[in-house]
Amino acid sequence: MSLKKKIATGLLAVTLLGTSVLAGCGAKDAGTAGKSQTGDSYPEKAMEFIAPGGAGGGWDLTIRTTAKALKDSKLVSVPMPVTNKPGGGGGVNLAYMQTKKGSDSLISVYSPPILLINLNGSTELSYKDTTPLARLITDYGVFVVSKDSPYNTINDVIEALKKDPKSVKIGGNSSAGSMDHIQFLMIAKAAGITNLKEIDYVSFQDGAASAQILGGHIDLLSTGLGDVQQLLESGDLKALAHTAGHRVGEGVMAEIPTVKEQGIDATFENWRGLFGAPDMPEYAAKYWREKLGEMVKTKEWEEARKKNGWDDAYLDQEGFEMFLEKVNGEYKEILTDIGMIKN
């Protein structure tokens, strides 16, 4: 073999060896990427935790408390910053979640409105357009008035509405036909009010309802217990009743009577759970299901629940999905009964 041919052959061998090495590196990189995608090193980056309502509301409190408990108990080490995406009774965020289909880094909190805004026609989207992960707690509705209000019991309000359905202006942070509205109408219906459609309800979806009741712009605020705890403890607001079937919470919260104690045979549960993006990868869903299942057993979570007056209502994904299907049917009946179902 000539020198020229030997040099050419050698160069070809080096080229092939280099290609083989590079191919091997590529395969290794692909394998590493595959491991990341299948969750062996998940999560590696910050999560996107979302509250579909304004700062200070029930959704905001729940997901911030969840993030803190996960961090403080050292169950999750990646950052879990919370973003507020209010609007449409949760519909704005639900639409945003559709743009994150397949994401392994988005988790949002929801409660009954994720069902109600679909049933009342506000959006075509529903909980089926997410990845349910776990139900965490049950909060309850509460009806509060300003400290100087002439109403001292829920029955005072009911009697005023029976005489004139326009005499009491009701406000809430959810949209009309959604949770804050519905929970009051359910109680009013159980108390014997028939002209429910005539009752004025004002929606403050930016989370400003507490400021509105303090400013005297509405007469009664229908909201969640945790949403107004500080204002009740400070004495700026007084609670007429809450929707649990038993006394809940500690201190001032435990002093609030139930509607049942006041002769109205009704309850309303404001459950809250976490939902991933549509088609969340299985490795991510599995990770968060496991972490949430561990979190609800920690002292950090137990202390937070007691402080906020939340009842333990944990359900893993399978049970949560069955629950959602069941209550979706119940809410449909409620909306039909009060004439708010949209076909």
Q: What is this structure, in a nutshell?
A:
By secondary structure, this protein is an alpha/beta fold. It contains eleven helices and ten strands.
Written description of the protein model:
The protein is an alpha/beta fold. The chain contains 11 helices and 10 strands. It has helices at 3-38, 58-72, 91-98, 113-119, 154-163, 179-190, 209-214, 229-234, 282-295, 299-308, 317-337; strands at residues 48-51, 82-84, 106-110, 131-146, 170-172, 201-203, 220-224, 237-242, 269-276, 311-316. Strands 1, 2, 3, 4, 5, 6, 7, 8, 9 and 10 form a 10-stranded mixed beta sheet that branches. Helix 6 (179-190) links the parallel strand 5 (170-172) and strand 6.
Identify the notable features of this structure and list them briefly.
343 residues, alpha/beta, ten-stranded mixed sheet, 11 helices, 10 strands, 42% helix, disordered N terminus
Average pLDDT rating = 88
> What is the overall number of helices?
11
Rg from Cα: 26 Å
**How many strands, which pairing sense, and closed or not: the largest β-sheet?**
10 strands, mixed
Number of strands: 10
Decide which structural class fits the backbone: alpha/beta
β-strand amount: 15-25%
The rounded distance between the terminal residues' Cα atoms is 87 Å
Proportion in helices: 40-55%
- What is the string of SSEs from the N terminus onward? HEHEHEHEHEHEHEHEEHHEH
Poorly predicted runs: 1-37
Characterize the overall form.
globular
